[in-house]
């Protein structure tokens, strides 16, 4: 491609509102331009990178046995009513009506459509398993689109859906996708972790993993072991029960006046008690029933773990009026001692280790001292109900927990029968019995992957593309196109390198050398070849963008040199 014809307007300054490197560099290097908030056009360089990412995805998906299809972005709302998600999905679901006032949605995902597509086709165990995928534009009405294409309202996604007759077959499909995803992100040049995760709005009670690219700009926190392969999203990172019951204190439980001391910090300061001896009490309403959860004062309860542990349909914090009606006091002073019989008490494992604790007395401005969980509290169940902290033991027994930020680029789910039962997708097994299809769901954010590559591969001068996804392999520069020897050598190399299978961006513009070098660093192709002052000797300068290493190479040896370099 001759750069004089390339539609790639570059910017010298960082655009206003671009807060992270990927957004800044995609704008500055001419990969994208904003059309509306959270909606972008991809220019030639950006589209080329997308094409390479999609090519890698297709190769690995096809190798796994998945088959590519294409489903409509516009989906009848009736399908979402069947699955029960039309009202549950929330305001992010984009809706529209046609001229006949029939309601549709712009698909943020395709569980409903794919299930309706196969329910009349995959009606026998003989046709199973099947894995179908597509690469398509998705839509979500983000409240606050930001970070460029990392959180946008229109984005490109690869989604796949497997249909299986039993749990063993589903596990095989899941493992195949897990391996395919690992290969995809490895080939894209990403440093990533596959972490245990929560299914969220997609649903399903089976296994699920997120593929997280390590990055300081990531919106998710990964909890990982410093001595093993364990990794999980912070919201579901589990903790082992390593606590033993503490000794019963000599002192009897007593009450103490604590005026206006509501928070853990206020109580700790007022009573000169360490946070790990405080008992934090929070009332939840779980499927319309009150449940009091308690943990140590230096820990935070995790509502995702709470919902999953109780297999709850709905879990929410109790409102102030509900707390007053049950405990006779205001929030900040409730505790697990002497509570109504209809309120269950669930305690985090770490509560076992409290020997002489402090908790709310269910009386305004009052706390209890010398509380022992076993002696003074009727605990219905112990469990893992809190967020992990750095330094906690890893659940697999290997090392301790550390934190890192991550960008989610892929997610694999075992959906089970959530959608097949709701939309009537059944098959006949070997005995002629009707059974719901077992489903898996597997998504990759294609445009997010592009941004994640940039977050891990850039410097202060610009992009540093891995060759696997780079828009071009080589950047060929002629520093002075008016110099006949430079122009001739450049033209000769441009033709020869393309004949050898290299994708070349040829900077033949009538620009100053400094401009060409700046643009070359900004665009960040893997190798830059410069025809300059030694062109009359047939010598060019070859620079590797990633390392900055430069070497003078004779044109006759250039192809062999590049072959060795890329190999």
UniProtKB/TrEMBL annotation:
It is an enzyme of class 6 (ligase). Residues 33-466 form the Aminoacyl-transfer RNA synthetases class-II family profile domain. GO terms for biological process: prolyl-tRNA aminoacylation. It catalyses: tRNA(Pro) + L-proline + ATP = L-prolyl-tRNA(Pro) + AMP + diphosphate. Its EC number is 6.1.1.15. Consists of three domains: the N-terminal catalytic domain, the editing domain and the C-terminal anticodon-binding domain. This is Proline--tRNA ligase. The lineage of its organism: Bacteria, Bacillati, Bacillota, Bacilli, Bacillales.
């Amino acid at each position: 491609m001759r750069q004089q014809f390339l539609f790639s307007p570059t910017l010298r300054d960082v655009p206003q509102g671009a807060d992270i490197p990927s957004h800044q560099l995609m704008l500055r290097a001419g990969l994208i331009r904003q059309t509306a908030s959270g909606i972008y056009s991809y220019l030639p360089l950006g589209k080329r990178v997308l094409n390479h990412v999609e090519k890698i995805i297709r190769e690995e998906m096809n190798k796994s046995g998945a088959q590519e299809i294409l489903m409509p972005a516009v989906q009848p709302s009736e399908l979402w009513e069947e699955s029960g998600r039309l009202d549950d999905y929330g305001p992010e679901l984009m809706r529209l009506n046609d001229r006949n006032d029939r309601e549709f949605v712009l698909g943020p995902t395709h569980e409903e459509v794919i299930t309706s597509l196969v329910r009349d086709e995959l009606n026998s165990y003989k046709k199973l398993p099947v894995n179908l995928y597509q690469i398509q534009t998705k839509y979500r009405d983000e409240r606050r689109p930001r970070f460029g294409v990392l959180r946008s309202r229109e984005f490109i996604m690869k989604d796949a859906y497997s249909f299986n007759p039993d749990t063993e077959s589903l596990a095989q499909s899941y493992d195949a996708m897990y391996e395919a995803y690992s290969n995809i992100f490895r080939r894209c040049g990403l440093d990533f972790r596959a972490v245990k995760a929560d299914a969220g709005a997609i649903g399903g009670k089976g296994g699920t993993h997120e593929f997280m690219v390590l990055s300081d700009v990531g919106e998710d926190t990964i909890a990982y072991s410093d001595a093993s392969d364990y990794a999980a999203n912070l919201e579901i990172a589990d903790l082992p029960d390593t606590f033993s019951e503490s000794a019963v204190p000599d002192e009897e439980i007593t009450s103490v006046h604590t005026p206006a001391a509501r928070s853990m910090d206020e109580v700790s300061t007022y009573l000169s008690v360490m946070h790990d001896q405080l008992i934090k009490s929070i009332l939840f309403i779980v499927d319309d029933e009150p449940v009091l959860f308690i943990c140590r004062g230096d820990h935070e309860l995790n509502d995702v773990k709470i919902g999953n542990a109780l297999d709850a349909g709905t879990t929410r914090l109790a409102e102030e009026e509900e707390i007053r009606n049950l405990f006779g006091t205001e929030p900040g002073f409730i505790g697990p001692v002497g509570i109504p019989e209809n309120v269950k008490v669930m305690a985090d494992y770490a509560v076992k280790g409290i020997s002489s604790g402090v908790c709310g007395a269910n009386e305004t401005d009052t706390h209890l001292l010398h509380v022992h969980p076993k002696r003074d509290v009727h605990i219905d169940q112990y469990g893992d109900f809190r967020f992990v902290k750095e330094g906690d033991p890893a659940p697999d027994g290997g090392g301790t927990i550390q934190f890192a930020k991550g960008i989610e680029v892929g997610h694999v789910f075992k959906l089970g029968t959530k959608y097949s039962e709701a939309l009537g997708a059944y098959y006949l097994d070997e005995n002629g019995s009707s059974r719901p299809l077992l489903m898996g769901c597997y998504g990759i954010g294609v445009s997010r992957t592009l941004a994640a590559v940039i977050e891990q591969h850039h410097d202060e001068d610009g992009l540093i593309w891995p060759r696997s996804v780079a828009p071009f392999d080589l950047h060929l520069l002629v520093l002075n196109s008016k110099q006949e020897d430079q122009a001739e050598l450049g033209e000769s190399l441009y033709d020869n390198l393309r004949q050898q299978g290299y994708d070349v961006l040829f900077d033949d513009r009538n620009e100053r050398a400094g401009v060409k070098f700046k643009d070359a660093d900004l665009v960040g192709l893997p190798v830059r070849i410069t025809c300059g002052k030694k062109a009359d000797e047939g010598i060019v300068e070859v620079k590797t963008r990633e390392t900055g290493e430069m070497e003078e190479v004779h044109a006759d040896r250039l192809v062999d040199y590049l072959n060795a370099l890329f190999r």
